[in-house]
Amino acid sequence: MTLHVGLATTLPPAPTGPAEFVAGVLPELARAARITCFVDDPGLVEPALRHRFDIRALDERTDPDVDIVVYHIANNLAQLAIYQAAMEGPPGLLEIHDGSLHHTSPAKSGASSAMIAAGPMNVVCLPLATASRTFTSTATGAASSCSCSIC
Fold first, then answer.
1. Which stretches in the chain have pLDDT values below 50?
2. Phi then psi dihedrals of residue 77, to 5 deg
3. Can you give the pLDDT at residue 120?
4. DSSP letter string over 81-113?
5. pLDDT at 34
6. Residue 103 is part of a domain; what is its CATH number?
7. Number of domain units in the chain
8. Which residues of 108-145 are buried (b: 16+ CB within 10 A; e: fewer)?
């Protein structure tokens, strides 16, 4: 059985470096698991990515065929829809791309304090460096611990 990972993220041409990063690692991730990307607006994703990968609307992430959702957040206002999705669920993993998320503070983004500073997000935080190992470890039940300031 192949692990089906839902990746809630931004993708090019979103104006954020993490979108480019995710697009770059998708081929490798697809070797380890079945990947479905959930984005704010699939029609805006580069056609080459839409052709090669399963790109769906962010609100479809509750698909029961998806084994786990990974919420990829970063220090960029383009990520606000992903933050909201992580808070609404379903539960999953939170991959924090940047060491600081200060550019997404309510004062800079106009987002509500509750959205950014709400307690538990129904997710387990995952340092970026361990992301690709965790995709394969999740299938075997390996656990990861978190030492971030969010959890």
1. 100, 102-151
2. -65, -20
3. 40
4. HHHHHHHHS--EEEEE-SS--GGGSHHHH---H
5. 96
6. 3.40.50
7. 1
8. ebebeeeebeeeebebbbbeeeebeebbeebbeeeeee
Domain assignment present for residue 91? The answer is yes
Contacts of 138 by beta carbon, 8 Å cutoff, 6+ apart: 3, 5, 67, 68
| Structural domain harbouring 72 | 4-140
β pairing state of 123-127 and 92-96: parallel
Q: What is the pLDDT of residue 122?
A: 42
User: What gap in Å lies between CA 87 and CA 132, rounded to an integer?
Assistant: 23
pTM of the model: 0.68
- pLDDT the model gives residue 45: 97
Check residue 108 and give its pLDDT. Answer: 45
Find, among 58, 50, 44, the residue nearest to 26 by Cα.
50
